[in-house]
């Protein structure tokens, strides 16, 4: 199929339709709204369910209901709206249902702004809703990758009966790139046994997240954890650039990952042996990929559009064996390649240290650079 | 080889569309390309700009601090981007909408009275294409005829009647570079 | 001409800061702001008032009013106003909310505040769409009306019927004054100002929850110029959303609040 020049938000929406989205529930919020608008124009004609909900709280609970039927369902939003969905996310997880959630992250906290950000990393990756649950979190860095991960998201959601979150940022949502979309597949007729369907002769189905008896809840949670172990083993995805001989390892995901790629290339042109690890699944995290790099690396540089959320994960994996430094921008500001290049060159220049907290050093740099407002 | 182009002006000057057309042309020529707009309240404030990156290999950052080429459709855009341009870059300035010439000596600046030319062509809205013509001549990003082919391939049926004027505008712009 | 010949016929109300607003040209948000500022000034309440801004085009309202302001999460202004009023009961507290903010995501909060008879005033801007996010369908969007999320026109079968919020809130016992006015012409604007005054007076009298719905225009997202937008309001919105008083606590008239 030919490539088309298409916006990230619309590419995700159209891909979801093509791989069999039966229902969508959402609420307008910038920089995600084109996704909802595209589906509002397309779904009624296809005879599929589109509802602009009264709120994100409504939307996620509509998804909860739709997911109970075993048909493909999705919602999308941006950070403040995702916060409102946290209750539903916990309930859907507690009922072991498949669903896809797209978060086109914007600058925060609070109302913040509508500029691109990765400030929701912890919320998506380390929870945000209550109780023990795990989401799969996919972080595309290009429109083509967003297309592929959207299709994958539905498959993974069904395979593991779990929520799969696609975490993009405002710039990927708004950006146009050539991409090849999947072909349109007809809707699947059959639904899984666990779904509510009210068909005479079929066993009765009850779906709920309540386990009033704590040992029963514990057994449910244990089953979930064991499932999660399997996901951790089988579903890790990442990309490596220039890492074979790299002495310095940059780690970045999503849009910041590709910005870092520009910086890494320029550094290579300057003769610096640096490479990039770009996690695609933020959860399950590419743990082994990081661990494998520890022996060869002189130092790591973590870069994000937040205050160092993945930094903590990387430090946990590097275990103090090698220096880990950080460069990030916050609040809806993306780093430019030149800034990441500066940070790479600072590593090379040294002195490298295992002492102290990389966050302190980064804060000192950033304070110098932008000052502190009133 | 990678080239970054920023197209900047007031809303309504067709900056986003010009960038998209360039992106289409690059895509059709088999290049890697990204198009990214500024979005949000900034747009309601009346400015509209986009960054187009064209490359032979997988594109890293879709935005750059120091662009290789800038189409400045108005004075605020000239003021904003002239200081940021990469050395040796190409700055196309819409002479009809500014009251000064660029001062940097390490870039190539081309003044194009885009609105005047567009008016002469009978449609002020093609000023963006005049500017684009000058850019493509000054910076051989794409093979000859690529942008015209993109125009033909990606213009919606209902806008096709403007195509002749657009192509005229591109030609006139090229003459300035 | 001597100084005494110069008559001041127009000036910025004291409740306004000297700033240009970010609203689109002709947008009635500016008119509604002005009416609130004038009323509070006339009541001598300017320095006793705390406003609560919504999420919507009026999110920056606090930049224009000269008194204290807070900014709520989308739809939650009535809850935030409740927190303020219950802590500072002698203050005049109001929310200023769009139709997406109040009648969609914030429906729970506004109904609950009205039912509690919360002593706050809600100014409700009904422009039949979500202005700030680029013109999506709102609960108030008219049947058949085209928006960016009802591109073929609001189909009531699929997308439901518009909500008449003033009529709905008027059914609640906690409400003291509930009115709808329009901002499409000078006469209507004068009437709107009176209603806003009545609402704030009722709040001061401690009579209960008060709300004034203001029919407004959104030329940008309607794709109409200002004159045509006013006409569209008069032709399409007024028949569907009649202006009037839907709930008037008798004590209001007794006190001569209007
Ligand atoms: C939780 C949450 N969801 C969505 C949004 C995005 N959003 C911002 S303003 C707005 C709607 C505003 O429309 P309305 O209340 O009608 O006010 P108007 O802009 O028309 O004045 C929405 C949906 C948000 N900021 N927060
Ligand atoms: S978008 Fe509509 S409501 Fe918002 S300021 Fe513009 S005209 Fe007013």
Give the strand tally of chain C: 9
Name the shape of chain B in a single word: globular
Q: Major sheet of chain B: order of its strands?
A: 2-3-1-4-5-6
- The average pLDDT value of chain C, as a whole number, equals 94
Total number of distinct structural domains of chain C: 1
* Beginning-to-end CA distance, first to last residue of chain C: 39 Å
Q: Please, what is the oligomeric state? A: heterotrimer
Structure classification of chain B: alpha/beta
Output the CATH class name of chain C: Alpha Beta
* Order of secondary-structure elements of chain C: HEEHEHHEEEHHEHEHHEH
Let me know the number of strands of chain B: 6
Order of helices and strands of chain B: EHEHEEHEEHHHH
Q: Strands across the major sheet of chain C, in which order?
A: 2-1-3-4-8-7-9
How would you describe this protein?
The complex is a heterotrimer of chains A (374), B (177) and C (258). Chain A is built from 13 helices and 14 strands. By secondary structure, chain A is α/β, with parallel strands linked by helices. Chain A folds into 2 domains: 231 residues, Thiamin diphosphate (ThDP)-binding fold, Pyr/PP domains (Rossmann fold), CATH 3.40.50; 133 residues, Rossmann fold, CATH 3.40.50.920. In chain A, the strands form 3 sheets. A 7-stranded mixed beta sheet of chain A has the order 3-2-4-5-7-6-12, with helices on both faces. Chain A has a 5-stranded mixed beta sheet with strand order 9-11-10-13-14, with helices on both faces. A two-stranded antiparallel sheet of chain A has the order 1-8. The mean pLDDT of chain A is 97. Chain B has 177 residues and is of the alpha/beta class. Chain B has a single domain, classed as Pyruvate-ferredoxin Oxidoreductase, domain 3, CATH 3.40.920. Chain B contains 7 helices and 6 strands, in the order βαβαββαββαααα. Chain B has a 6-stranded mixed beta sheet with strand order 2-3-1-4-5-6, with helices on both faces. The two termini of chain B are 22 Å apart. Chain C has a 7-stranded mixed beta sheet with strand order 2-1-3-4-8-7-9, sandwiched between helices. A two-stranded antiparallel sheet of chain C has the order 5-6. In chain C, helix 7 links the parallel strand 7 and strand 8. The termini of chain C are far apart. Chains A and C meet through helix 2 of A and helix 3 and strand 6 of C. The structure holds thiamine diphosphate and iron/sulfur cluster (SF4). Iron/sulfur cluster (SF4) binds next to helix 8 of chain C.
């Amino acid at each position: 199929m030919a490539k088309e020049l298409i916006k990230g938000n619309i590419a995700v929406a159209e891909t979801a339709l093509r791989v069999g989205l039966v229902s969508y529930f959402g609420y307008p919020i910038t920089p995600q709204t084109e996704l909802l608008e595209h589906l509002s124009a397309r779904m009624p004609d296809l005879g599929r369910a589109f509802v602009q909900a009264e709120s994100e709280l409504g939307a996620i609970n509509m998804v909860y209901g739709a997911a109970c039927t075993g048909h493909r369902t999705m919602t999308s939003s941006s950070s403040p709206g995702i916060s409102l969905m946290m209750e539903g996310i916990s309930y859907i997880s507690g009922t072991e249902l498949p669903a896809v959630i797209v978060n086109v992250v914007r600058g925060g906290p609070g109302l913040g702004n509508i500029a691109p950000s990765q400030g929701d990393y912890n919320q998506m990756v380390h929870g945000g809703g209550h109780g023990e649950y795990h989401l799969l979190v996919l972080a595309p860095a290009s429109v083509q990758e967003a297309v592929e991960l959207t299709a994958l998201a539905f498959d993974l959601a069904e395979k593991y009966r779990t929520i799969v979150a696609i975490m993009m940022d405002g710039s990927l949502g708004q950006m146009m790139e050539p991409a090849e979309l999947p072909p349109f597949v007809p809707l699947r007729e059959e639904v899984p046994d666990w779904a509510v369907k009210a068909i005479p002769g079929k066993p009765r189905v009850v779906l709920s997240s309540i386990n009033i008896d704590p040992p029963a809840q514990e057994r449910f949670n244990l089953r979930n954890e064991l499932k999660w172990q399997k996901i951790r083993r089988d579903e890790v995805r990442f990309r490596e650039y220039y890492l074979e001989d790299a002495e310095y390892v940059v780690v970045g995901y999503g849009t910041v990952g590709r910005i870092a790629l520009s910086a890494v290339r320029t550094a290579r042109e300057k003769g610096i042996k640096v490479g990039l690890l770009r996690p695609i699944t933020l959860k399950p995290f590419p743990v082994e990929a990081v661990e494998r790099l520890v022996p060869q690396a002189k130092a790591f540089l973590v870069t994000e559009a937040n205050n160092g959320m993945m930094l903590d994960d990387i430090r946990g994996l590097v275990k103090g064996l090698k220096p880990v430094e950080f460069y990030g921008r916050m609040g809806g500001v993306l780093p430019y390649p030149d800034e990441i290049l500066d940070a790479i060159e600072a590593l090379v220049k040294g002195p490298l240290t295992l002492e102290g907290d990389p966050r302190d050093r980064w804060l000192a740099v950033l304070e110098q650079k932008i000052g502190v407002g009133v | 080889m990678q080239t970054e182009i920023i197209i900047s002006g007031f809303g309504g000057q067709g900056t986003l569309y010009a960038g998209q057309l360039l992106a289409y042309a690059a895509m059709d020529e088999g290049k890697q390309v990204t198009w990214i707009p500024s979005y949000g309240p900034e747009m309601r404030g009346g400015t509209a700009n986009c960054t187009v990156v064209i490359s032979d290999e997988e594109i890293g950052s879709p935005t750059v601090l120091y662009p290789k080429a800038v189409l400045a459709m108005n004075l605020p855009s000239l003021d904003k981007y002239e200081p940021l341009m990469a050395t040796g870059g190409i700055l196309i300035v819409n002479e009809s909408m500014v009251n000064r010439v660029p001062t940097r000596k390490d870039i190539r600046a081309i003044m194009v009275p885009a609105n005047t030319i567009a008016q002469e062509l009978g449609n002020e809205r093609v000023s963006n294409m005049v500017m684009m013509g000058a850019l493509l001549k000054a910076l051989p990003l794409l093979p000859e005829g690529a942008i015209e082919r993109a125009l033909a391939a990606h213009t919606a049926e209902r806008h096709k009647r403007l195509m002749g004027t657009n192509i005229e505008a591109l030609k006139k712009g090229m003459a300035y570079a | 001409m001597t100084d005494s010949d110069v008559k001041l016929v127009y000036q910025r109300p004291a409740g306004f800061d000297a700033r240009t607003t970010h609203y689109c040209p002709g947008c009635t948000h500016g008119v509604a702001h002005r009416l609130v500022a004038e009323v509070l000034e006339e009541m001598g309440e300017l320095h006793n008032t705390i406003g609560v801004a919504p999420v919507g085009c009026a999110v920056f309202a606090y930049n224009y009013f000269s008194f204290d302001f807070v900014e709520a999460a989308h739809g939650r202004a009535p809850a935030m106003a409740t927190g303020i009023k219950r802590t500072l009961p002698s203050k005049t507290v109001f929310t200023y909310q769009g139709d997406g903010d109040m009648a969609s995501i914030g429906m729970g909060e506004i109904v609950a505040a009205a039912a509690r008879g919360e002593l706050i005033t809600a100014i409700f801007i009904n422009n039949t769409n979500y202005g700030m996010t680029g013109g999506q369908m709102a609960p108030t969007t008219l049947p058949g009306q085209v928006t960016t999320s009802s591109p073929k026109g609001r189909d009531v079968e699929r997308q439901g019927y518009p909500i008449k919020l003033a009529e709905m809130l008027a059914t609640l016992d906690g409400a003291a004054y509930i009115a709808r006015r329009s901002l499409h012409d000078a006469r209507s604007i004068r009437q709107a100002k009176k209603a806003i005054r009545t609402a704030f007076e009722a709040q001061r009298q401690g009579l209960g929850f008060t709300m004034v719905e203001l029919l407004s225009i959104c030329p940008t997202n309607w794709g109409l110029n200002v004159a045509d937008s006013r006409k569209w309001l008069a032709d399409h919105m007024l028949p569907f959303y009649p202006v009037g008083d839907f709930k008037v606590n008798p004590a209001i008239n007794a006190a001569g609040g209007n």
